[in-house]
Amino acid sequence: MADFQPKDKAIQLSHGGGGKEMNKLIRELFFAEFDNPILRSEEDAAKLDLQGATAFTTDSFTVSPLFFAGGDIGKLAIAGTVNDLAMMGAEPQYLSCSVIIEEGFSLNQLTTIVRSMAKELKQSGARIVCGDTKVVPKGCADGLFINTSGVGRILRPNISAANVAPGDAIIVSRDVGCHGAAILMAREGLTLESALQSDCATLWPVVEQLIAANIPIHAMRDATRGGLSAVLNEWAAAANVGITVNEASIPVCDEVKGLCELYGFEAMDLANEGTFILAVPNDIAIGALEIMQRFGHCEQAAIIGTVSDELPGKVILRTPWNTKRYLDLPQGELLPRIC
Description:
The chain is α+β, with helices and mostly antiparallel strands. The protein has nine helices and 13 strands.
């Protein structure tokens, strides 16, 4: 860890002005925590050595509140960008990081967030190689916004929503809805006796295990905004297939169930930040599940459904009462600014 130990000070406009204060902030905080030779070269652009097929993604993070059970906006920014690469079968390599900071923002909190980012980077081995810092007048932002872009080397090509095929099994990596529920608790100031935390986590380690085991992955996607419901509907439309899922097979923790009952939400619609869905041929689904559970720390992973050519473009939910209904895309704004 770096030696930078800020006093309880606030970010000033001068921290984004290009002068001494900005130089000190960047060198003693960002450079110290994200240290690597490419970043330290201080060029206008990072020089990268890219070979073969490459995945590239970008995302912006505006979550409210900035700190929540299980993470913060910094951890979320790194995990979210790395996960987008991992879902394409790409090994995360290089990230950019731009921050927009509101004047008056706590330097202590900024330091905590940056160190959280540095810690999460170690989960994938990716490096931040370029960035930008902007400070805007008080009232022009809500504390802190972060934009990250990521580049990764594709190790397993042809992973695509369009490749979901009849005969595939649908697997979820863990219980769903924890991030959305944790954000709801933090935002509403709920003090229920609960150990509920966001699932915010880097997914590359488990994906790497699946690739190393040569599992023929047809599609993968992290179930962020719109949750499980959104992913399955997007896949059904992209591949023109029908997907049937068993509600009783979908893992949902008691705390999320309770909050859904309290607020009238569906756990399958709530956001996740460390949960992914994959489609694999049915005959190797058990093997994929065992790899995830034994080597990927996905003890709650479960096979939740199948793919067919019936009712193409639709997702059918089979309830515990053996009835069926359409599982539609979420509607309305359930939880604004969950990422």
